[in-house]
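Colleagues,

For the teaching module next term, I've prepared a clean inverse folding example: a structure given as C-alpha cells, and then the sequence designed for it. I'd like students to try predicting residues themselves before seeing the answer, so please don't circulate the second half yet.
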C-alpha cells in the first residue's frame, strides 16, 4: 500500500480502519458439500487477496452459490475448512462471521420492500456491545444507547450518500428500480463496516448506467482496502473489472489466474467459455 492510499483510507468518511494489504483474508481448503446424492462442492480450494476484486465464475450448477453459503455460514461443509484472517471460521453462524467482517449482500425480501430505504439501512447496524440491554435499563447509561443509535443513523446516511441513493431515503424499498435495489443491498452490507464483501450476481437486472455506477463504487471501495469476491455470469464484467478470476466446474476449482490467462485457458474454454471467447 502506498503512503497516499494509506492516507486516503485513514481519512475515508465511511469509517474503515487501516488494513494490511499484504494479508490474505479468505482461504477455503478442500471444501465439500453434498445435498442427498448431489455433490455441490467437491474439494474446492482457493484464497482471496486483501484489497482485491476477485471473480468467481463457472457454468450453472458449478457450486458457486453453495461455496458462498459455506463461506458465510449459511451451510456447514461436510468437510474442509474456511479461514478468515487466519482464523478457522468453519461452521460458525452467519452473524458470527458477519461480526468478524465477512459479509454478503442479501436480496431485499418482500417484508423489507414494505419499509423505507432508511429503515432498511437501520435494520443492519454495526454490531453493538453485548451489554446493550443492560445499559438501556441502567440509569445513567441510557445516553450510550442513544449515542449508538445516532451513530447507526449517521452511518446509514453516509452510506446512502456514498451510493447516491440518499434522495430515496424516504421511499419504500419495494418502489425502487432493480438497479436502485442493488445499490441498497450493497449499502446495507456496508453498514457493518466489513473487511470483505461477497457479491452474488449484484448486477442481475441492472441497467447499463446503474451497472457502471455500481462498479465504480466497488472500485472506489476496493482502492480503500475493502476486498470483494464476485459471482457474476456476465463475462465482460468479470474480465474488465476483476484482477483475479477463479473458475469452478463440477464443485472443483478448474483454473484461476488473471483474466487474460483465464480467457485463453483451454480447459476453461471447453468447460465454460465456449463461444464467449
Ligand atoms: N439446498 C440444496 N439442495 C439440493 N441441491 C442443491 C442445493 N443447493 C444447491 N444444490 C445443487 O448443488 C449444485 C450446485 O449448485 P449451486 O447453486 O451452488 O451452483 P451455481 O454454480 O451457483 O449455479 P448457478 O450459476 O446456476 O447459480 C447444483 O446441482 C444444485 O442443484
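(Answer key — instructors only)
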Amino acid at each position: 500500500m502506498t503512503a497516499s492510499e494509506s492516507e486516503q483510507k485513514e481519512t475515508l468518511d465511511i469509517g474503515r480502519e487501516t488494513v494490511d494489504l499484504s494479508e490474505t483474508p479468505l482461504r477455503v481448503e478442500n471444501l465439500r458439500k453434498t445435498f442427498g446424492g448431489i455433490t455441490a462442492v467437491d474439494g474446492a480450494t482457493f484464497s482471496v487477496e486483501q484489497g482485491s476484486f476477485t471473480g468467481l465464475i463457472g457454468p450453472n450448477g458449478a457450486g458457486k452459490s453453495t461455496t458462498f453459503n459455506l463461506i458465510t455460514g449459511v451451510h456447514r461443509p461436510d468437510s474442509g475448512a474456511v479461514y478468515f484472517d487466519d482464523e478457522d471460521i468453519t461452521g460458525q453462524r452467519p452473524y458470527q462471521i458477519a461480526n468478524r467482517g465477512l459479509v454478503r449482500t442479501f436480496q431485499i425480501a418482500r417484508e423489507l420492500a414494505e419499509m423505507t430505504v432508511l429503515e432498511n439501512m437501520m435494520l443492519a447496524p454495526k454490531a453493538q456491545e453485548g451489554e446493550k440491554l443492560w445499559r438501556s435499563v441502567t440509569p445513567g447509561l441510557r445516553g450510550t444507547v442513544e449515542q449508538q443509535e445516532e451513530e447507526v443513523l449517521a452511518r446509514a446516511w453516509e452510506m446512502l450518500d456514498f451510493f447516491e441513493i440518499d434522495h430515496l431515503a424516504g421511499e419504500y424499498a419495494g418502489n425502487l428500480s432493480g438497479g436502485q435495489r442493488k445499490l441498497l443491498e450493497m449499502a446495507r452490507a456496508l453498514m457493518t463496516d466489513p473487511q470483505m464483501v461477497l457479491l452474488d450476481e449484484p448486477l442481475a437486472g441492472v441497467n447499463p448506467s446503474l451497472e457502471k455506477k455500481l462498479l465504480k463504487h466497488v472500485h472506489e471501495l476496493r482502492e480503500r482496502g475493502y476486498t470483494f469476491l464476485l459471482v457474476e455470469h456476465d463475462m465482460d464484467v468479470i474480465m474488465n473489472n476483476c484482477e483475479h478470476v477463479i473458475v469452478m466446474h463440477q464443485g472443483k476449482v478448474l483454473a484461476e489466474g488473471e483474466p487474460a490467462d483465464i480467457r485463453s485457458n483451454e480447459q476453461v474454454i471447453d468447460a465454460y467459455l465456449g463461444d464467449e471467447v
